[in-house]
Design goal:
Number of strands: 45
Helix content: under 10%
Structural class: mainly beta
Number of helices: 3
Distance between the termini: 101 Å
Strand content: 25-35%
């Protein structure tokens, strides 16, 4: 007969009293499943979450308490420490608060303790170091303060994230040689990572982001060969990345973004061939991208933005068969963008804006069709847009503004019917807006300002049902705005500095543009009188400078409460704007 089995006889009085104290201190009568304390004095029979075990065929003891999400509100009574035979306790997802009683240190048989997502406060009692059998401890999402105790030699799982623990991680951490899971993110921990970190040879998961850790990433980390996940982002770690990271052949994720790491990306990282995500963005890394990154055949996410990386983008990145996200923006990268990048089989997002890329944008006639976002703005790319863009069937966002692109807007973009945003402003494009773009019915943002585009504004563009922002200013457009111009979702309409004939009654029509908040029509020619125009109640920004406007502002405009910017300077208007109104407008006629 087994010496340990479930039982239904009465436990010791001290254990019964401990449960009754918990019931009273934690509002037991309001729990989701209240204990029948008035009808059953035996907690081993019919008390929710209580498990009893017959130990050595002698006494029935309470060995497990599972009250997750039962609605406990209050505190844990000191007598809880009398449940000395407990091996498992789960009080998670409740509203228990106050400090933990030191008597918890009496629970020497406890192997699993789950107190996460409560309101516990104060420091961890030093007596918890007596819990020598503890293998799993979850105290996440509470309000604990002070140092984080790490003296549990048998522990394999420690989750203490979302508290206010402070102080440094002492070398005693490395004595927990069975530790496999360590999650201590979102605290106020300081100091450096222990140099003995590599002694944790069982460690699989290390998550310590959003603290205030300093110092370098110890080279010994390469000895923690079981590591699968490292997230130390948003700290103040400095120094160079240790070459020993390349020894971690089980490592799948590295997140070290938001630190002050410097130096070059070690070539040895190419040996960590299990990597699926490498995130080093927002550091001070410099030098060229190592060619060895092309060895990471399982890599899905590569984020290197916000550094000072130089040199050319390796064409071999386009050969990574699993790559989905490539973030290289805000660096000092130069040279041309390799056409092979557009052939990465699973690429979804390409962000290489705000670099020093130059030359023409080239790609094969059949690029990867899975790309959703191409963002290359603030570079010095030249030449016409390649027709290969028109074959990226999944393209949703095309941001190529502030480059030196020339030629005409490609009519073939009309085949990319799911595109939502086209931003090509501040280039040297010429010619008309292609009439074929009438098929782009998903367009929400069109930004073409500051080019040399000409011709009339297509009527089909002016009735797009999803159009949210339309920027056509600073071009050479002529003629009148389309008579059927009507966009129920249009918020910003900018057509200033063209050669247009503006029908004011059209652009101020609240029925055509029921949510329009910003309107720019300056430096064009009005074809109807200002005096009869009603200011839409949705407009907040209006620019009408240099339009040869005459007469006075309509009196109704002076009552427009949402209008915060009106510029009608450099016109021929007369009259007076009250001071109270002038304070609401940045610039108005005098």
């Amino acid at each position: 007969m087994s010496p340990h089995r479930t039982c239904t006889t009465d436990p010791p009085v001290s254990e019964l009293d401990a449960l009754l104290d918990l019931y009273d201190a934690a509002g037991g009568s309001n729990w989701q499943s209240p204990w029948p304390v008035s009808t059953s004095a035996n907690p081993c029979v019919g008390w929710t979450g209580v498990t009893c075990t017959l130990i050595n065929n002698v006494t029935c003891h309470v060995t497990s308490l599972a009250l997750k999400g039962e609605g406990l509100v209050g505190t844990v009574a000191p007598s809880f420490g009398n449940l000395t035979q407990l091996t498992s306790v789960d009080l998670s997802l409740n509203l228990l608060g106050g400090p933990l009683p030191p008597e918890l240190g009496n629970l020497g048989r406890l192997t699993s303790m789950d107190l996460q997502t409560n309101l516990f406060t104060g420091t961890l009692p030093v007596t918890l170091s007596n819990l020598g059998s503890l293998t799993s401890c979850d105290i996440a999402n509470n309000r604990f303060t002070g140092p984080l105790s790490t003296g549990w030699s048998a522990l394999s799982n420690l989750d203490a994230h979302g508290n206010a623990f402070s102080g440094s991680l002492t070398p005693t951490l490395c004595q927990m040689t069975h530790l496999a899971f360590l999650s201590i993110f979102d605290n106020a921990l300081t100091g450096s990572l222990p140099s003995c970190l590599g002694d944790l040879t069982s460690l699989v998961f290390l998550q310590a982001y959003a603290n205030m850790l300093t110092g370098t990433l110890p080279a010994s980390i390469g000895s923690a060969r079981s590591l699968n996940h490292i997230d130390l982002s948003n700290n103040d770690l400095s120094g160079e990345l240790p070459a020993s990271l390349g020894y971690l052949d089980s490592l799948q994720l590295i997140e070290l973004d938001g630190n002050v790491l410097s130096g070059q990306i070690p070539d040895s990282l190419g040996n960590a061939t299990a990597l699926t995500q490498l995130d080093l963005h927002k550091n001070s890394l410099y030098g060229t991208l190592p060619a060895s990154l092309s060895n990471l055949i399982k890599l899905q996410v590569l984020e290197l933005d916000g550094n000072a990386l130089t040199g050319a983008i390796p064409a071999s990145l386009g050969q990574l068969p699993a790559l989905q996200t490539l973030f290289l923006f805000e660096n000092v990268l130069s040279g041309s963008l390799p056409s092979a990048i557009f052939s990465a089989k699973k690429l979804h997002q390409l962000y290489a804006q705000e670099n020093y890329l130059m030359g023409s944008l080239s790609m094969s006639a059949t690029p990867t069709t899975t790309i959703h976002i191409v963002s290359l703005f603030h570079n010095s790319l030249t030449g016409p847009l390649p027709t290969g863009l028109c074959h990226i069937a999944g393209l949703q966002t095309l941001d190529l503004y502030d480059n030196l692109f020339t030629g005409r807007l490609p009519a073939c973009l009309s085949s990319v019917t799911g595109i939502v945003e086209i931003d090509l402003h501040a280039n040297i494009f010429e010619g008309p807006i292609p009439t074929a773009w009438q098929h782009l019915l998903s367009l929400q943002v069109v930004s073409l300002y500051n080019n040399f585009l000409s011709g009339t504004i297509p009527a089909t563009l002016a009735t797009n049902p999803y159009l949210y922002e339309l920027f056509l200013d600073q071009n050479l457009f002529t003629g009148r705005l389309p008579a059927n111009f009507s966009c129920s979702r249009l918020v910003q309409l900018m057509v200033q500095e063209n050669f247009l004939s503006i029908e004011l009654s059209l652009v101020f029509d609240a029925q055509r543009f029921p949510v329009l908040s910003s309107l720019g029509v300056s430096d064009n020619t009005p074809i109807d009188a200002l005096s009869s125009i009603t200011m839409s109640s949705t407009l907040q920004y209006v620019d009408m400078t240099e339009m040869q406007l005459m007469g006075t502002l309509p009196s109704q405009w002076l009552l427009a409460q949402r209008l915060v910017f009106l510029d009608v300077s450099s016109n021929l208007l007369t009259g007076h704007v009250p001071e109270t109104v002038r304070k609401r407008w940045w610039r108005a006629t005098k």
